[in-house]
Design brief:
With 241 residues, the chain is an alpha+beta fold. It is built from eight helices and five strands.
Amino acid sequence: MLTPVDVQKLLIKERARIIDSKEIIGWVYSVFDDIDHQDNSILERLSNSPIEREVNNFNIKKVDTDAIFHISHIEKICVNYRLRFLDTKYFKSSYPMEVVQKIKSIEKEHQTVLDGFKIIAPSKLFTLDKADDPLLFAPMGNGYYYLIYKWGTDLHPLRRIKYWAIKNVENLGLTVCFLSFLLTVLTKDIFYGDSANNFGYVFMLFLFYVKGVLGFIFFYGAASGKNFSQYAWQSQYDKIS
């Protein structure tokens, strides 16, 4: 009668054939030392990237086309949602082990050592230890980047609206005009009463609000040192320098 084959016992037997039983403990330690060394090497590269180069060699036959993005695509998303795209040496949050495993997997598959890592994340993650929606990239050259891994939570769907006004100068101007117009409509009767429909009076009130809203924005902007998303998406500084 044929007996079932125990694969685990076969593996143990094969290992014993190559490695003496007295050396197994030492072999196990060497395996884990090698794993720790690889992991530490990757984490060190992430913490100091770029170290030696800013372009990586990928095997074109093995790349995931859904993971390749041009700098223009990255810029648009970063500006719209007020995100930063910086070298990982500026990233102050921690990396999940899945990131290390993904990098090891890609390096093995493409027979390369990755460097020049960049990351997309909210500006707070480059100064505070939190974990919201970072995306890790490796440069491919000619303005193209390869998405290594994404972790954390997704962006709030209203984030784009929240930062729309400070996307660029044009958006801020439209916001100022809209707020001034809204305030004018809501308060013209209070200021002018029966003359509230006089165009000259209403226009003067509108200009007053424009001046007031602009003054408030410039005061707040100067105090906070914040820049427009259009200019801040690749800045490693939290405030205008």
